[in-house]
UniProtKB/TrEMBL annotation:
Organism of derivation: Umbra pygmaea
One of the Pfam families matching this protein, by short name: BAR
SUPFAM superfamilies, alphabetized: BAR/IMD domain-like (SSF103657)
Protein name in UniProt: BAR domain-containing protein
UniProt domain BAR: residue ranges: 22-292
Length: 352
């Protein structure tokens, strides 16, 4: 370990802290950055802030459970593979299929449960592909900017602040060196008088000059350090500016990632719509549902004898007796009526 290097770094750090404190208290002048550089710095900071918000909200959209998100971050920080979790569609699929197995999968209700469970399973598979696509094509590029690219920007920005503080320290040293040199010249041009007051004044001025000379450098040395600090600061400003101009390239990359995000969502929702529409067509054209619908309409439209007047009930009984005796009207009706489709159980479907 180089003790001299550590001492130099510690001294530079202390000088920067003193300079920064004096600037904050308004006791020292501060070199202002270029307006374009300030604008680029603000733009990079805004990009970082909003990128973090977009990433956070997208993660909430993909995983609404905060406990699961925290667990995923923990596994990611430890560089471990996160355990596989069942999504809500997959859990619903299992519940529907298990219900069909227990209630009877060959019944109309059970077979429909099996079909709906298979639909939820296919939606779960599509949802996993959506999550994977968004994580790779959208979240990863945005996270790469916040974790890597912006870290480099922050390092260069920190270096720029340090070089700016060093420049202001050099300016302050030159100012103090010039002040001490001017007072020394004035003291030499005005020697002490014969009276006591002049001697005391000369003594205080002499001590002040010695004090300034103790803490101030020579003017030539201070000027040389100022030129070096100015050159280093300008070089660091150019490096930081070139790096910040890359924000436009970052925005272009984020735009492509955003298009991939929209494309993944469009494909997912289109696939879900097609799956649900296909199942809907199958269910609406299933014979079991047609029979159930027609039987429900028949039960709803058939009059109940419990609500008919007493005079009507004998009339219905007489009509039934006449039909049983003759059998002719019934046969005529059967001969003229079209053939009706049959439901399971050999029950004809009565049209309403």
């Amino acid at each position: 370990m180089d003790i001299t290097s550590l001492a130099v770094d510690a001294g530079a750090f202390i000088n920067r802290v003193v300079q920064y404190t004096e600037e904050a208290l308004g006791q020292a002048e501060k070199t202002q950055l270029d307006s374009r550089l300030e604008s680029l710095l603000d733009r990079a900071e805004s990009t970082k802030t909003w990128t973090d918000k977009i990433i956070s909200q997208t993660e909430r959209l993909l995983q609404p459970n905060p406990g699961a998100r925290l667990e995923d971050k923990l596994y990611k920080g430890l560089d471990w593979s996160a355990p596989q979790r069942q999504g809500p569609h997959e859990l619903l699929s299992e519940n529907m299929i298990n219900a069909a197995l227990e209630l009877g999968q060959h019944t109309p209700y059970g077979s429909t449960l099996v079909r709906c469970g298979e639909l939820e399973r296919q939606i779960s598979v599509a949802n996993k592909k959506l999550l994977q696509s968004i994580a790779i094509n959208f979240l990863s590029p945005l996270s790469r900017f916040t974790d890597e690219e912006y870290t480099v920007i922050q390092n260069e920005r920190r270096q720029l602040v340090n070089k700016r503080l060093d420049l202001d320290i050099a300016k302050c040293r030159l100012r103090k060196a010039q002040e001490a040199d001017n007072e020394a010249r004035g003291l030499n041009s005005n020697p002490a008088g014969e009276d006591n007051i002049s001697n005391v004044s000369y003594m205080f001025s002499f001590l002040r000059v010695r004090w300034l000379k103790m803490w101030a450098q020579e003017v030539s040395q201070a000027e040389m350090e100022l030129r070096i600090s100015q050159s280093v600061f300008e070089r660091q400003s150019e490096i930081t500016t070139l790096l910040l101009e890359g924000i436009n390239t970052t925005h272009t990359a984020h735009l492509r990632s955003l298009n991939d995000f929209v494309e993944a969502q469009a494909s997912y929702y289109a696939q879900c719509y097609k799956l649900t529409q296909d199942l809907r067509t199958q269910l609406t054209s299933a014979p079991s549902l047609v029979c159930y619908n027609n039987n429900w309409h028949l039960a709803a439209n058939q009059p109940s004898t419990s609500t008919l007047p007493l005079v009507t009930i004998p009339h219905l009984a007489t009509s039934s007796t006449i039909n049983q005796a003759t059998h002719q009207p019934t046969k005529a009706i059967q001969a003229t009526s079209p053939k009706q489709p049959m439901c399971p159980g050999n029950q004809p479907i009565l049209s309403t």
